Amino acid sequence: MKQVKLMTGNSNPQLARAVSGNLGIPLADVTVGRFSDGEVQVVINESVRDCDVYIIQSLCHPANENIMELLLIADALKRASAGRITAVIPYYAYGRQDRKVNPRDPISAKLLADIITISGINHLVVIDLNARQVEGFFGIPVDHLQARPVLTEYFLSEGLGGEDTVVVSPDIGGVTRARNFARVLGSPIAIIDKRRPRPNVAEVMNIIGEVKGKKAIIIDDIIDTAGTIVNAARAIKEKGAEEVYAACTHPVFSGPAVDRLSKAVEEGVIKEIIVTDTIPLREKFEGVKVLTVAGMIAEAIRRIHFGESISRMFNF
Ligand code: R5P
User: Fold this and answer.
1) Of 88, 138, 122, which is closest to residue 302 (Cα–Cα)?
2) Is any atom of ligand 1 closer than 6 Å to the C-beta of 69?
3) Which of 3, 92, 100, 259 has its CA 20 to 30 A from that of 30?
4) Cα of 286 from ligand 1 centre, angstroms
5) Which residue segments constitute the domains of the chain, with CATH numbers given?
């Protein structure tokens, strides 16, 4: 059996350390720094020959820097005769740019997939891609993990679920995610009819389903500027929801996100914001709770190494 090596760049060292702790395997001695001119410098200080290597690197802010770190670590591993190189990418950048919305748009998610594929990476582990079809952009195997068990377990432990709770999808694209979430909680769903007049601007048109008197959990894959989730929370609260929880896998939290979310918590519109640690929070604020996906990633690595099923982790 090949030896397992875990390594990371600078994107989310806390998560990488937590995965390493879960597996009881130390992070390999790798230095990922910068040359004087800002170019990425990678030095692998131990042999990786024939090893089963896992690079844990989230492609969060600063995305372009973190992407380059991942690619150069992979290239260094390939040239050092690593056995198999698996990139564990908790947050996949550019994932929302998966089609041409306007003429002459790039398809950035596809280009990034092509670059990753030729970098030497043989296998990919991702969590909650914005669109499942992005898996098909890669010419290598992709294991697609879901944060759903981590999030639903939290809500169940807080006593939510059943008919008094409603799971809300903040847009039509998230209905399957909300339905799967609701199935675990034994709750009904509601759907927000969202419109985007311009990029990064979200407007609520209608709410489909009953939210009055219920505890509402809005579930999304990403909170970016927080326009989608805060507008959804306000609309649901106006329709008589008793409490509103905002949950997502990837807390991108760019631009006005923290202000919007803090204000919504302060005003009592949102009771709690529940996110995972696929992206480290740049700023902690009142009302936000971070759940870890480290245990899930560690289990996926263990299963990949021993050739066991990943899909069984999500069969419930
Ligand atoms: C859209 O497809 C995603 O699922 C999220 O709803 C969106 O990225 C959230 O963006 P924002 O927080 O900027 O409204």
Assistant:
1) 88
2) no
3) 92
4) 22
5) 4-145+294-314 (3.40.50.2020), 148-291 (3.40.50.2020)
